Amino acid sequence: MALKSSSLVIWISPGIEELVKKLKARNTDVYLISEGFRQMINPVASILGIQQENSFWDLMLMSSLQGVEEKLLLFNK
């Protein structure tokens, strides 16, 4: 299913919106965990009504200084 968020077109798995609504109706905490990046994950969390503090994503930091590549880090906000 394609959803629009400002200028982005976001594809999510069919039925996920309904699943999130049902879980929230049962007072179940819903989390969004992805190997994607914040710029893509935050709009999806917003569309699905998932709190930003419940979304986790990867942030890759790379430095070309002296050829050093920093580790892949998982960040929340």
UniProtKB/TrEMBL annotation:
Provide the cofactor list for this protein.
Answer: Mg(2+)
**GO molecular-function annotation terms?**
L-phosphoserine phosphatase activity; magnesium ion binding
Record flagged with keyword Zinc: no
Gene3D superfamilies reported for this sequence: HAD superfamily/HAD-like (3.40.50.1000)
Q: Which UniProt keywords apply?
A: Amino-acid biosynthesis, Hydrolase, Magnesium, Metal-binding, Serine biosynthesis
Its pathway, per UniProt, is: Amino-acid biosynthesis; L-serine biosynthesis; L-serine from 3-phospho-D-glycerate: step 3/3
One GO cellular-component annotation of the UniProt record comes to: chloroplast
So what EC number does this one have? 3.1.3.3
| GO BP of this protein | L-serine biosynthetic process
What is the protein name given in its UniProt record? Answer: phosphoserine phosphatase
The scientific name of the source species is Gossypium tomentosum (Hawaiian cotton)
